[in-house]
Amino acid sequence: MGDYRREYERSRKDPEGFWRDAATMIDWVTPPGRILDDGNAPLYRWFPGAELNTCHNALDRHVEAGRGEQPALVHDSPVTGVLTTYTYRGLRDEVALFAGALRRLGVARGDRVVIYMAMIPETVVAMLACARLGAVHSAVFGGFGAKELAARIDDARPVVVLAASCGVEAGRVVPYLPMLDAALETATHRPHHCVIFQRPQHPGALRPGRDISWAAALDGAEPAECVPVAATDPLYILYTSGTTGKPKGVVRDNGGHAVALRWSMANIFDTRPGDVFWAASDVGWVVGHSYIVYGPLLTGATTILYEGKPVGTPDAGAFWRVAAQHRVTTMFTAPTAIRAIKKEDPSGRLAGLYDLGALRLLFLAGERLDPQTYTWAGDLLGVPVIDNWWQTETGWPIVASPRGIEVLPTKSGSPSLPVPGYRVRVVGPDGTDVEAGEDGTILLELPLPPGCLPTLWGDDDRYVRSYLSAYPGNYLTGDGGRFDEDGYLYVMGRTDDVINVAGHRLSTGAMEEVLAGHPAVAECAVIGVSDPLKGQLPRGFVVLKSGVEADPIGLEEELVAMVRAQIGPVASLRRVDVVGALPKTRSGKILRRTMRGIADGADEPVPSTIEDAGVLDRLRPVLRNHR
Ligand code: COA
Ligand code: AMP
């Protein structure tokens, strides 16, 4: 039996022994005694009774172990021309001081702090400072607009909001304070303070009585020590898109998270202390939380915080420049980024300008990895390309080739095999496992391993309703796919109304809520359609209220602007068609899946439940026309 099989079987047969051993990679204040608390199933908790501090494990322990002068964080920002390196000691000191500043503002263990900042070191400092105090951070992606920010503020109810004055995108500055103002106007919750980090590219006007500057918050602050917390205490809340407009507050605990991420760095990513790990993602997404911030730092590796794009900052060689300059050993990004590079530099000429000799592995995730991108990247870089499938909810890969355990063959189109700790099933509508080769719904058997969400913030019921009730004893992933005869999983896409645009997870339901808010709109539908660069793009369809006349082009512009302002530019909604009617079932459900199939050029059957097939026939040419 190979090493992977042996590890996998052990994790199945003796999960508690398996995770007890993994927990030895973490420093504990009170080491784990009991490993799994199953007394409140289907809500499970890992390491009940144990205590630790995540920030200590990410920073202090490495300084104490002699890594103080090793680079911990490199901020490489082609959009501002800045390159800054923080050693473990330097980062620890900055974090301790900012934790002291937060404490002075009244932030204590269990309090929430919303972080609406850009890809700058202060964001990482803020996250770790919260962890140091046992406070719970909730970082909001800078590409989200006011409505999304307000929803998160109202749900997390933060004591303090931390914001940067702006983000810097390729070729444009994005002021954040107008978005913060708009969010706080609509939110019902009021934070006690907003702390604003002024960036020279666009300093913002502070609001007296509400805002203080980052510098003023730090002035005279005393460094704070690490506060021991329960392993089961929340470390962060990360909101993600569900099928409705209300985002889901995925909770991450301290103990399970630290153990799982540390284990994943060694066993999946084959990354050791001292290696240089670069996840080219954004700290606002789960990849950023797990593999820009926590995973590499818990490991004692160097992490790269890249404030730039794969193309245009300044060119399609940017990724290779960063990888070469910082001697990156392990890289992680989304397939879209590689497709964007390939589009601009199809021959890969720019990669040849850099010495990529340190690079050992390229990991790709966040969306389906198409075979062309897989092959192109592998041929160009000459290193293994490792597809890995997971989600915000799990926080670390569910299915991947675990490079630190065994070098297994990879297959194009499949993220490979279930990672130890996860029991993956593919079932049919009746909940029984389908045969290899047959498509079905992908489930994870409970309990989920450490690091996965224990619940949704403040809402156990919604957690159970959304994920655990469809197939009792199992977690519903929302993805469909199949196993092949060798046990390799093929993930084919979401079975719900969540879409994936350039590796960004978005809710069509949230966009529909915005469109429905326009006074001319009677009803609407948003679907995701295939796009060669971004994987998927949203398209909107609106039916006007009776008697309302509107210029379709002018209305489209207004609706696109509304979605951009409220959800954010990242939604990438550019096209909204005015149509006479939407196809529905007799019970009134809009046939979004059928619309999606037709838009993607599939030979989509007309469902027998359709109310009026003529409506679909009239829509067909509009769906097929991607202007
Ligand atoms: N703050 C403010 N605005 C942001 C933003 C942020 N953090 N991130 C993106 N946006 C804006 C972009 O500027 C763009 O605005 P525009 O409509 O005015 O051009 C819009 O949101 C859409 O952004 P994006 O989807 O990133 O598209 P793009 O055309 O700018 O770039 C790619 C395309 C493929 C280069 C880019 O999507 C990319 O690098 N993808 C990698 C995906 C990734 O890292 N995913 C994370 C999960 S691993
Ligand atoms: P997020 O929660 O933003 O990480 O998005 C998770 C979703 O992205 C999953 O449910 C999948 O639909 C999709 N996804 C992520 N990684 C992969 C992958 N390697 N292959 C296919 N789909 C993926």
Automatic annotation (TrEMBL):
<feature type="domain" description="AMP-binding enzyme C-terminal">
    <location>
        <begin position="511"/>
        <end position="589"/>
    </location>
</feature>
<dbReference type="Pfam" id="PF13193">
    <property type="entry name" value="AMP-binding_C"/>
</dbReference>
<feature type="domain" description="Acetyl-coenzyme A synthetase N-terminal">
    <location>
        <begin position="4"/>
        <end position="58"/>
    </location>
</feature>
<protein>
    <submittedName>
        <fullName>Propionyl-CoA synthetase</fullName>
    </submittedName>
</protein>
<dbReference type="InterPro" id="IPR025110">
    <property type="entry name" value="AMP-bd_C"/>
</dbReference>
<dbReference type="InterPro" id="IPR032387">
    <property type="entry name" value="ACAS_N"/>
</dbReference>
<dbReference type="InterPro" id="IPR000873">
    <property type="entry name" value="AMP-dep_synth/lig_dom"/>
</dbReference>
<comment type="similarity">
    <text>Belongs to the ATP-dependent AMP-binding enzyme family.</text>
</comment>
<dbReference type="InterPro" id="IPR045851">
    <property type="entry name" value="AMP-bd_C_sf"/>
</dbReference>
<dbReference type="InterPro" id="IPR020845">
    <property type="entry name" value="AMP-binding_CS"/>
</dbReference>
<dbReference type="Pfam" id="PF16177">
    <property type="entry name" value="ACAS_N"/>
</dbReference>
<feature type="domain" description="AMP-dependent synthetase/ligase">
    <location>
        <begin position="66"/>
        <end position="444"/>
    </location>
</feature>
<dbReference type="Pfam" id="PF00501">
    <property type="entry name" value="AMP-binding"/>
</dbReference>
<dbReference type="InterPro" id="IPR042099">
    <property type="entry name" value="ANL_N_sf"/>
</dbReference>
